[in-house]
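Try this one yourself first.
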């Protein structure tokens, strides 16, 4: 806790000092608190604080610093375990509008990013609240369910170049340690998408799987969005394929989803499959907002993998209410036999089973 107070004091000093050098400084962030009680005298709780400082130094340079402070505790069989991860720098990077700074009037724009960051070569093109059908690998997290930006953990040496031309952009990312990514993003009308190539393969973001530069992971994703009067429609698809034989892991994975919003009602469904399990992760979200601030929802998570003991991974039944900017939640998770922690509140925390309460606020 002492480290957290030191962080807050340091951020306060930065907010007051940086305006002398920057033309525009914003301080934003997010705090999440959650507590879970399950049968058998088991309980758990967590708190996460994610402050972010963004300094627009001039018209062409922006400096971003994002921090993480997290802690959680678990009481199982009346044996408490408390863990505090302390405060860490999650992201620290500088983005520069190169063509703008040079005053070049070109048909392309060039932007660079240097520092510690995750590239995010994705549209996050899924329709469920959690992304269960897009990037969750179960039961233990297979490589192919990870997004293209699931790279090495050591990101201090990372650099990225983004070249924009018309409605599209070309992206190159490297950590100067052998890990590189290439991406093409863009859109036409109601369709947006990405084509990515990641090399060499990083298994779970930690270990190099031994592939050469030409034996990486190829990814394609697209999303169609449209409105027809009061009806909003979203249909995403994705496909990822390893050019390196990943045996005994799967060599490819795919996913598709669809969402429909009509006045106060929301329904979304998505599925993911791979070489071993044609149908693997399936999710169904149903929600209704009878009031602007009130939402009732039930999200069902299924695990159809052959190795799964139970098809049901879990059901999240929740009611939430907005008190200003703060979202207050109460819910109950009906867990499956495999005791898989299912994502709650858009994957900000996970619950295996039982009653929970949570608060989420962004500023």
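Now uncover the answer:
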């Amino acid at each position: 806790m002492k480290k957290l107070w030191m962080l807050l004091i340091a951020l306060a000093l930065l907010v007051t000092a940086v305006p002398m050098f920057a033309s525009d400084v914003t301080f934003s962030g997010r705090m999440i608190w959650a507590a879970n009680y399950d049968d058998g005298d088991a309980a758990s709780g967590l708190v996460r604080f994610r402050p972010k400082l963004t300094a627009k130094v001039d018209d062409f340079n922006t400096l971003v610093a994002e921090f993480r402070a997290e802690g959680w505790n678990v009481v199982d069989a009346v044996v408490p375990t408390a863990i505090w991860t302390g405060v860490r720098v999650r992201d620290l990077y500088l983005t520069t509008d190169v063509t703008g700074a040079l005053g070049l009037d070109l048909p392309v724009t060039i932007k660079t990013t240097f520092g510690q960051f995750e590239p995010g070569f994705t549209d996050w093109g899924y329709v469920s609240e959690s992304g269960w059908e897009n990037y969750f690998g179960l039961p233990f997290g297979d490589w192919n369910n990870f997004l293209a930006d699931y790279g090495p953990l050591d990101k201090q040496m990372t650099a990225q170049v983004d070249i924009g031309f018309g409605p599209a952009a070309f992206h190159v990312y490297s950590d100067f340690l052998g890990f590189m990514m290439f991406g093409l993003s863009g859109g036409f009308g109601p369709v947006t998408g990405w084509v990515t190539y990641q090399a060499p393969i990083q298994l779970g973001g930690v270990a190099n799987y031994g592939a050469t530069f030409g034996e990486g992971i190829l990814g394609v994703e697209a999303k169609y969005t449209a409105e027809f009067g009061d009806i909003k429609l979203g249909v995403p698809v994705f496909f990822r394929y390893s050019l390196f034989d990943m045996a005994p892991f799967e060599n490819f994975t795919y996913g598709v989803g669809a969402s429909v919003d009509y006045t106060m009602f929301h329904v979304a469904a998505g599925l993911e499959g791979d070489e071993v399990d044609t149908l693997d992760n399936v999710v169904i979200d149903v929600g209704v907002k009878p009031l602007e601030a009130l939402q009732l929802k039930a999200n069902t998570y299924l695990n159809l993998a052959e190795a799964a003991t139970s098809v049901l991974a879990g059901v999240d039944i929740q009611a939430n209410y907005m008190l200003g900017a703060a979202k207050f939640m109460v819910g109950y998770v009906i867990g499956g036999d495999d005791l898989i922690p299912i994502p709650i509140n858009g994957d900000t925390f996970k619950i295996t089973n039982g009653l929970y309460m949570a608060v989420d606020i962004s500023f």
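Discussion: Residues 34 and 358 are 4 Å apart (CA to CA). The chain has a mean pLDDT of 85.
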